[in-house]
Specification:
- 2 copies of one chain form a homodimer.
- Chain A is an alpha+beta fold and about 325 residues long.
- In chain A, about 40% of the residues lie in helices and about 15% in strands.
- Chain A is built from 9 helices and 9 strands.
- In chain A, strand 1 (about 25-30) and strand 2 (about 35-45) form a beta hairpin.
- In chain A, helix 3 packs antiparallel against helix 6, helix 3 runs parallel beside helix 7 (about 240-255) and helix 5 packs antiparallel against helix 8 (about 260-285).
- Chain A is globular.
- The mean pLDDT of chain A is about 95.
- Chains A and B meet through strand 1 of A and strand 1 of B.
């Protein structure tokens, strides 16, 4: 639940006056989101999302995210579009934080997506991968294999306090993945965080994608592996192979996976599970004093990783070779 | 930041299907509010606030609040109006909690209201008092003088841990107020919690009132005393007499205060300050495990109460006798 920064009346009025959007009609903090403060802002001209970028989002990287959303929107991806100030800038400063006004998207994120939704999510991910191909900027994915050692360093002291033996489990997995991580697969712009909360539906049809603040340049199949981890496990921890098949089918309606990508997927899904296990573990062990955000349970991704470790082939993952 | 209860897709769809409001377009948790869970819900028919009543709001009292909002809206007070289900009910059940769909009000609550806003708040409070006069239901104000002993019992053990000597200070004030609390003043429906977060403005004009869940039957002048405590102190703790005068003037443009009410106000403002000192103290000392809500600082109202204790006459409060 994310409103970390309070915005006072005068600062808000001064900020909105920089835009050609008329006078304010409504302003409410939104409980969704974890990293940044988000507000629903309405003026005579329409509705917007106002995002204040908190410390977790690197200010130097904001121009990448802004440019990417503009690029994707032009390519027909329904995603938030930065609104520019009269002076032409899309990034401003509000309450001491970098701030952007983004277009508002209709749609509802699903708590329990079904197989048909998974297919649509897969399709949208493939469209995003294609739409990003002629995007000129690049951004390294700090939360892929090269970043995990650093993440583990930040969490290893406390790992066994979360679950006995977790430290050694992660150390072994990390070593395995570093040795076996695939190279040279098709790559480009990835969303890198396409969980159900970041996908909107209208009457069961996918209507838009949000939250591009982990977007980066990485392997497409790794992005699909993240998506698979995020969408196809049930609340009881079981793997729903029907949903997985739907997601793969949806993806491949738009972009076919190569045989190298097929072969790499059992490793990539392990990597994706480890990435979220590690970041959640770091958050879990470093809850700031007075935090109003309850961190996600890291062990959810421990269990998903354990599932992936036991895979014998890609068919078990729902992929037809 | 208040979303205590998660609403799943199926429950939400079933709930909205009970209303004649078309299909869902958007659903977002709202960070404002403390007692209940609030969501912004949009359908083809318009925008609504969905409120899930959490344990703090007595289920048995919900019909009073719902009927009051309906009554006040008919009397021209711009306040949320309960939307009724096809079967005629305004109260439903969602995710195991009593739930109501309310009309959405445009407007912004001010962080730093100015004197002109205080005048408008006073005026709106008086209009509310008049509009409630022919409302048929009654509800005892549990947070007035008769309820304070119970509140103090819940907080007295920990009072000195918040500030040395606070226990004895409150005990003495409580005794004084119980002996001197006025009787027989004009009474009727009071809002009882008209803080700036519960008042909306559009272009500096008051546009609506929200959050009627403390509304009850009590002395009008006590409601004004609450409002005064809530609006006219500055962030540094100083009393802004200009704002107080504006609020009294605004109130009296609609409803004149009697000489008995004048005389009682120095006691009533002490009572109002004690009421919020006590409830905030109870909340401060009883933060539930894993709470995502940061309680308000109780000592803000200790300082306001200390100010009121030193008043020599009503002029110092900003009231012309």
């Amino acid at each position: 639940m994310a409103v970390y920064t309070e915005v006072n009346d005068e600062d808000l009025a001064n900020f909105t006056a920089l835009y050609d959007i008329g006078s304010l009609k409504s302003f409410k903090g939104i409980a969704e989101g974890v990293s940044n403060s988000n507000f629903l802002l309405e003026t005579e001209a329409g509705r917007y999302i106002l995002t204040l970028y908190e410390a977790r989002t690197e200010t130097a990287e904001l121009p990448f995210f802004i440019a990417l959303m503009e690029h994707l929107a032009k390519k027909g991806i329904n995603c938030p579009q930065p609104i520019v100030q009269r002076c032409g800038k899309a990034l401003g400063l509000l309450a001491g934080k970098p701030a952007a006004l983004l277009s508002y998207l209709d749609g509802i994120s699903l708590k329990k997506p079904q197989a048909a939704h998974c297919a649509e999510a897969g399709e949208a991910l493939a469209k995003l991968h294609l739409a990003g191909q002629d995007f000129a900027m690049q951004r390294q994915n700090d939360l892929s294999v090269k970043g995990w050692t650093q993440l583990f360093n930040n969490a290893e002291m406390g790992a066994d306090s979360v679950q006995e033996g977790l430290h050694d489990f992660i150390a072994a997995e990390l070593e395995y993945l570093q040795k076996n991580w695939p190279q040279g697969l098709p790559n480009g712009i990835v969303h890198a965080d396409l969980f159900p909360d970041n996908v909107f539906f209208l009457s069961d049809k996918l209507s838009g994608l949000i939250d591009f603040y982990f977007a980066s340049t990485d392997m497409f199949a790794y992005d699909l592996a993240i998506c698979l981890n995020a969408w196809v496990f049930e609340a009881d921890g079981s793997f729903n192979v029907t949903k997985a098949r739907s997601m793969f089918a949806g993806y491949q309606r738009i972009r076919s996976l190569s045989s190298d990508e097929h072969e790499a997927l059992p490793i990539l899904v392990r990597g994706a599970a480890l990435r979220f296990l590690l970041t959640r573990l770091v958050d879990w062990l470093n809850i700031p004093e007075g935090a109003l955000v309850r961190p996600h349970d890291p062990l959810v991704f421990y269990k998903r990783l354990r599932f992936h470790q036991k895979l014998k082939n890609v068919q078990e993952l729902g992929l037809v070779p």
